[in-house]
Amino acid sequence: MTNLPPLAENGVFSVSSSISIDAPREKVWSIMLDFPSYKEWNPFIRGQTITDKSGNPLPDQTPAEGKYLLIAPVHLPPTMGEPGWFQTQSSWEMITTVDHENYRAAWRSIALPAYLLNAERWQKVSVIDGRTKYETIAVFGGFFAHPLKLFMREKLVLGFKAHAESLKKQAEKP
Predict the structure, then answer these.
(1) CB 109: neighbour CB atoms within 10 A?
(2) Which residue, 43, 47, 42, is CA-closest to 83?
């Protein structure tokens, strides 16, 4: 397994977002990795929980490589309120990278065999021209990526944009 982000052209489709944030990189990184706080500010990913292999929440919610991650609920379209019928999703993931030195993290879907659906998401926080930049990309492949692209791509695009904008808003709070 490589420690490099996936190439968009290697999947059926990809979704990405980026935003400039007027806050220190360390603050953005800290918020990004504080999974229990997502419900307070993130309209797309309302919860992320570090679990054991059986899906039981662990006492230590510190992200680390090799840990399991339940992402739920996921609101599509993004909302801080109650979603409508069939607008809540979830995802079972394995954390593959938590790189504190380079401020990047990644996880990949493990709910289905990769030939049916594989998804890998990367997030990075960098400093460009004195400003913090948040970037994220998810690449989807496998048989079920085709209907996912057809039925969910636009909602995922909205979700990724809402995630980035909400992270910015949270990080820029005094």
Answers:
(1) 22
(2) 43
Q: How far apart are CA 109 and CA 152, in angstroms?
A: 16
Chain position carrying tokens 């990004």 = 32
Rounded to the nearest 10 degrees, the angle between the axes of helix 25-33 and helix 145-171 is 130
Residue 14's closest CA among 136, 168, 169? 136
Please report the pLDDT score of residue 23 as a whole number: 97
Phi, psi (rounded to 5 degrees) for 83: -75, 160
Closest CA to 21 of 120, 106, 103: 103
| Per-residue model confidence (pLDDT) at position 68 | 98
> Among all chains, which residue has been given the structure tokens 């085709």?
146
**In sequence order, what E strands does 33-130 have?**
48-51, 68-75, 88-99, 104-109, 118-128
Q: CA-CA distance, 65 to 8, in Å (whole number)?
A: 23
Location of structure tokens 């992402």: 71
Q: Which residues contact 128 (CB under 8 A, 6 or more apart)?
A: 20
Question: By three-state DSSP, how is residue 76 classified?
Answer: coil
pLDDT (mean) for 56-70: 97
CA 79/CA 164 separation, integer angstroms: 14
Q: 94: closest CA among 82, 86, 103, 106?
A: 106
Helix, coil or strand: residue 33? helix
